[in-house]
Amino acid sequence: MSDTESRSSSLLTWLIDPLRPTADSAPDAFTFTGDRRSWLVPVALGLALLAISALGWLVDPSRFYVSYLIGWTFCLTISIGALFFLFFNHLTKAGWSIVVNRINESLLWGFPMLAVLFIPVLFGMDDLYKWTNPELYIEGGPKYDVLIAGKAPYLNTPFWGIRMGLYFVIWSVLSYRLYTLSVTQDVTGDPEIMSKLRSTSAWGLPLTAITVAFASYDIIMSTDAHWYSTIFGIYLFAGAMLALLATMVIIGTSLQRSGMLTDTITPEHYHDLGKYLFGFTVFWAYIAFSQYLLIWYAGIPEVTIFYRHRLEHAWEWHSAMLILFHFAVPFLLLLPQITKRIPVVLGILAVWLFGMHWFDLHWNVMPNLFTDGGFHWVDFTTWLGLLGLFMGAAIYRLSRHALVPHRHPYLQESMHFENV
Amino acid sequence: MDNRTEHSEGPNGHDNFHERPRLVKGGLTFNDITELVSYHAERKTPKAWFAAFAVASSGAVLLLAMLAYQVYNGVGVWGNNQPVAWGWPIVNFVFWVGIGHAGTLISAILFLFRQQWRTSINRAAEAMTIFAVICALIFPTFHVGRVWAIYWTLPIPNQMEMWPQFKSPLLWDVFAVSSYFLVSLIFWYVGMVPDLATFRDRAKGFFRKRILGFLSLGWTGANRHWRNYEKAYLLLAGLATPLVLSVHSVVSFDFAVSILPGWHTTIFPPYFVAGAIFSGFAMVVTLLVITRKIYSLENLITIDHLEKMNVIILVTGTIVGFAYITEFFMAWYSGLEYEQYAFLNRAFGPYAWAYWIMMTCNLVTPQLFWFKKLRRSIPVMFTLSIFVNIGMWFERFVITITSLHRDFLPSSWGYYTPTMVDVLTFVGTFGLFFTLFLLFLRFIPIVAMAEVKTALPESDPHHYEGDGQVASTRGRDVPYIKPSQGYQSYRGGSQSTPLSDDDENSSAA
């Protein structure tokens, strides 16, 4: 299968799935048996919710933009997490994860669509990023801000746009390689593809780590241009992994409840995904707490302001919720084996963490721009609207290819995997 | 890792890409492994060991002398001064704690990740952890001005009704490092019980039998024993993992909670942990390259094991490099002149030489491991592992000294020069470390025999295809160190037939 004939025809399909459908070559056990509704319904719901959000834009544009950015970042973190997950698994030659890797690959190709969905943010730049205000840079002017003016070489709209473009090009190229190589293997069965995936992961991992860190500064941290924290990129990475793993569990359990992959994904795989979820719950808490402790302890005004915003005007409730429901509760519930091995229970926990990750992003961005804590309905409609489009596209991709990379050399090992 | 896949060894003992490599080379059987590991603890002590021990224990004595001298005369015998009140002792403390982290990573974290290649190296790595933590604990104990009052750091009810300050990360260090030491010790010992029982069963002498019988806690290898043992081991691994991450995070808090430019940065906890694993693995490679050669363990600690360790060194080294970039960028981005100056001063100030040594050793040289040829070359990895440890020592030096010697007030800028006592104390800790490590090599099973055996394909219940015959005898044709050569006519050097790894050369040891 050469590259030209495997490519999708029109630009729109390319954005959603760059490959011609290959599901015909898949064994029955690994084909998607759902009909169009499985992806049309989420897309339709997403579009409807985004249409409602447009009303929100009419009412309160600045709130809409921030909510939209949070929802968009949420979808972005899922795809970023998918990149990392595949890197780790290819590099360590993991055997257990083969049966869930395709679910992961379907979430991977979100970047081109997210790049298009980023356009509304560009209209709201002035609302989101205060550093775009030219008056801040006029020396001696009434609004002159010496700190922000010092960051001008980095925080200026053209360079910021170039950076964002660069991130998306890098992520899309990596996703394209990981996704298409794996799907090509379904058709050709070439075992050498494994080493290609591995070498892509080898140079992709450091590159993605750097770009994700700088993207976290550009997208989230610069909503408060005074504040900075070196750990922030890792914070976003921890959340991204959590979002991805939760999404994988949700899609996996949904597929199985719809009668697909019934004997392929076993409690053993859920157990491992659950361990991953538990591990990243703890890792997220470790990073989040380290950031808080160090800033609280030293109390340097420039940095402490971030937590001042989040400990007053009803945001303190959000902060408490975050500790309790993003860490303590999932920690205790994911600790015993039994919760990780029952798909339904793990699915519920995954939905929970999925929501908490959005809550975390909301907590990170919103207080920088809105002093009073609380939610606005547009926060939810934009988030769920974008999520509908994102998930619909992912399920559409799943429906076009085998649900499992069924000619992968480790497939048998993965099917018979047991947690010793 | 799982052994169900059929193996075929290509040339140079290297497998085809998508097949799981055999962890134990040379077709060793269960008995061969027992013989190979037990041999060294059971034979007469070779002269070379005594020679090495004499050198190492002289170093340990030197350490004791230096500590006695320092306690008698006061900490002023070190080079510490007013702006730089934390000098080499703290640098060495963080260095040794960092060395210790690889052992726990290999034994606990890789166990949780079901990485069977850890089995051959975990015993030595854990031993290294414990000895490194002992060396580390010396420094916070002795760098106080009044070592005899060090027990005040413990929350003991006393006639003064005084308690330690629980907000100080130095107190957290006391708890973190001491519990780290205890848990590592328990973990190490629990893992050793089945092997000690093997030694006990082979013991000839009256006292050897009694002592090993006492230490192996009546282990008989019963099914019930094993079930409880596996559970305990898993629980300990699960507990040790957050512990190991938190210990070095706490060590990083010593710096990061302060307000000093160059110290106060939020990335320190994960960055220190990555650096610790980086330096610890380098130390493991340094020691194991020599150990496997001298003790002819090349079939157990294979070039594949070393390669995997080098990959981890590369990954963690790159993470450390990422942290350097982040720190530098944020120092500029913060817009705070103190922060910006701190980093410029590191790169171009009076300690620029230390900074560039650190950068070269940590950021540049490990990147050579991108090349498979270099990853699998013994001399290259040995040299690089030494470089990494030099680099990581200088990293702590740079963080500690350069941030202290020039901070907010130019009137209190200074320069720090270590004295002879500083240097000899540090040299002495190496003496102590190697003294303990040599004792370990002499008396304790160097490789976890019971665990390595589970990594053999023969231990897989599906291995014998029902007719009692070994399903696959491939790999047996690879020449290996025959018991007859290795155990009976051992003369201090390795007389083994060379391995099939043609990229191994003997210049390492």
Structure notes:
- The complex is a heterodimer of chains A (420) and B (509).
- Chain A has 420 residues and is mainly α.
- Chain A contains 19 helices and no strands.
- Chain A has one domain.
- Chain A has helices at residues 3-6, 11-16, 37-59, 61-91, 98-108, 111-117, 119-123, 125-128, 146-150, 157-188, 193-219, 232-257, 267-298, 301-309, 315-334, 337-341, 343-369, 377-400, 411-415.
- The two termini of chain A are 39 Å apart.
- The mean pLDDT of chain A is 86.
- Chain B is mainly alpha-helical.
- Chain B has one domain (30-459): Formate dehydrogenase/DMSO reductase fold, CATH 1.20.1630.
- Chain B has helices spanning 30-42, 47-73, 88-112, 122-142, 169-202, 206-215, 223-256, 268-294, 303-334, 337-348, 352-364, 372-375, 378-405, 420-443, 449-454, 483-488.
- In chain B, 45% of the residues are buried.
- Mean pLDDT of chain B is 83; it is low at 1-17 and 466-509.
- Chain A binds chain B through residues 92, 95, 146-148, 150-151, 154, 191-192, 194-195, 202, 206, 209-210, 213, 217, 228-234, 275, 282, 286-287, 290-291, 293-295, 297-300, 302, 409-410, 412-413, 416-417, 420, and chain B through 1-2, 4-5, 17-19, 112-114, 167, 242, 245-246, 249, 253, 256-259, 264-270, 318-319, 322-323, 325-327, 330, 333-336, 370.
In short:
The complex is a heterodimer of chains A (about 425) and B (about 500). With about 425 residues, chain A is mainly alpha-helical. In chain A, about 70% of the residues lie in helices and about 0% in strands.
Strand content of chain B: under 5%
The rounded distance between the terminal residues' Cα atoms of chain A is 39 Å
Largest interface summary:
A-B, 46 and 40 residues
Number of helices of chain A: 19
Structure class of chain B: mainly alpha
Encode the helix/strand succession of chain A as letters: HHHHHHHHHHHHHHHHHHH
State which percent range the strand residues of chain A make up: under 5%
Which regions of chain A are unreliable across 5 or more consecutive residues at pLDDT < 50? none
Number of DSSP strand runs of chain A: 0
H-E string of chain B: HHHHHHHHHHHHHHHH
